[in-house]
Structure formats: structure tokens, C-alpha cells
Specification:
The complex is a heterodimer. Chain A is an all-beta fold. Chain A is about 0% helix and about 55% strand. Chain B has a 6-stranded mixed sheet, with no helix packed on it. Classes of the chains: A mainly beta, B mainly beta.
Chain lengths: ~120, ~100
């Protein structure tokens, strides 16, 4: 069974750093891209970026480029999303999702993590 | 960057009725790369439709997708109580539309 299990909720202060995780199991972790999606309170889904754990090829949305870092450790089947200096506006739910990606066939997120709630407040 | 615009923002219907949700792209996109998701409160999104018209595993056949070019549609026939949720379209596994909330009338 494919599963993506995310790390738990975080409460941080502005200016602090943070790294949240997403552990994949039940499939070949290095064969599928992993994406990150932000959902601010009461708002829609925002695509942040994706990473291919096999070679760490990473693509960012222009809106998030330079604001976050996406990485992966294929040895432990885990993807990460990190901030070097959090802002209050980073408070949101963050989802990881497996990216089904076959050219000319389909691109979509087929499995999702349960979400990690990040709260940034002084 | 391609922008997806969903309409209506909110759709109020009764169980048993048909829902028609629209997703319009700012430029032509291949239907292979259009997906629809359902999200219920407090839950992660769930894939419903990919390739514009292909139902994901386990999705009831009352859900159907169609469209091409810049205009795509998600249709839900014979609404069940569990179908009331927020629906998002997505293109190329990247940007999402802003969502349509399907609420009980």
C-alpha cells in the first residue's frame, strides 16, 4: 500500500528555521516525483514545487523559488520542505503528494500525505 | 504561467441533482494533463479524474470529466451527500484552479 506520512504539526516564531518531512512507503521512492502543496487557512491549493528523489532534480513555482528549499534523502525514502527564516505568512497546511508523471499520458498527484500544519506566531 | 479559472465559486444543489463544474485555462493545454481533485474539510485532496476524463481507481461512475483546449468540465450525476466538498482542477501536475465549493441547498 502506497503511503506518504508527514511529520507532525509545528509552532514556530518568526525568523526561526524549519524542516518538515514526508516519508514514502509501499512503492519505489526513487521512481516518482514528490510535490509540495500549500493551503493557507480557508484558501485553495498552491503548487510549490516537485523533486525527483532519484537524482534530486527539483522544480519550483516562481511564487516559491527562493522562499523554500525542497530536498530528498533517497536512502531513507523521505522528502523535505524547509525554510531558513519563517514569516507569519508561512502559516498554513502543507501537503506532500506523489506525482504520477508520464509524458503524453498524464501528470497528477495520485497519493497525498495527511498534511503538516505550520503555525508561525510571535 | 498558465492560469486556471474555475466557475462557479460556489454551487448550491440538492442531493440527487447534477453538478457541472467548469475549469477554464488561460491558454490551450493538452487534455492529457488536466486533473480534478475533491477535498473535504480537514482532509487531504483526493484525485478524482486525470487525463481530463479518466476516473481514478475507486471513483464512482457518477463522476465524469470532459473537455479540450481551454475548457474542461467535471460533472457529478445524482449527487450523494458525501459529494458536497470543494473541487479543484489542475494542469500539468502544477497549478491549481481556485476551487469550486459544492454545498447543499
Amino acid at each position: 500500500e502506497v503511503q506518504l506520512v508527514q511529520s507532525g504539526a509545528e509552532v514556530k516564531k518568526p525568523g526561526e528555521s524549519l524542516k518538515i518531512s514526508c516519508k514514502g512507503s509501499g512503492y519505489s521512492f526513487t521512481s516518482y516525483w514528490i510535490g509540495w502543496v500549500r493551503q493557507m487557512p480557508g484558501k485553495g491549493l498552491e503548487w510549490m514545487g516537485i523533486i525527483h528523489p532519484g537524482d534530486s532534480d527539483t522544480r519550483y513555482s516562481p511564487s516559491f523559488q527562493g522562499q523554500v528549499t525542497i530536498s530528498a534523502d533517497k536512502s531513507i525514502g523521505t522528502a523535505y520542505l524547509q525554510w531558513s527564516s519563517l514569516k507569519a505568512s508561512d502559516s498554513a497546511m502543507y501537503y506532500c503528494a506523489r506525482h504520477f508523471r508520464v509524458a503524453t499520458v498524464a501528470y497528477y498527484f495520485d497519493y497525498w500525505g495527511q498534511g503538516t500544519l505550520v503555525t508561525v506566531s510571535s | 504561467e498558465i492560469v486556471l479559472t474555475q466557475s462557479p465559486g460556489t454551487l448550491s444543489l440538492s442531493p440527487g441533482e447534477r453538478a457541472t463544474l467548469s475549469c477554464r485555462a488561460s491558454q490551450i493545454i493538452s487534455s492529457s494533463y488536466v486533473a480534478w481533485y475533491q477535498q473535504k474539510p480537514g482532509r487531504a485532496p483526493r484525485i478524482l479524474i486525470y487525463g481530463a476524463s479518466r476516473r481514478a481507481t475507486g471513483i464512482p461512475d457518477r463522476f465524469s470529466g470532459s473537455g479540450s483546449g481551454t475548457d474542461f468540465t467535471l460533472t457529478i450525476n445524482r449527487l450523494e451527500p458525501e459529494d458536497f466538498a470543494v473541487y479543484y482542477c489542475q494542469q500539468y501536475g502544477r497549478t491549481f484552479g481556485q476551487g469550486t465549493k459544492l454545498e447543499i441547498k
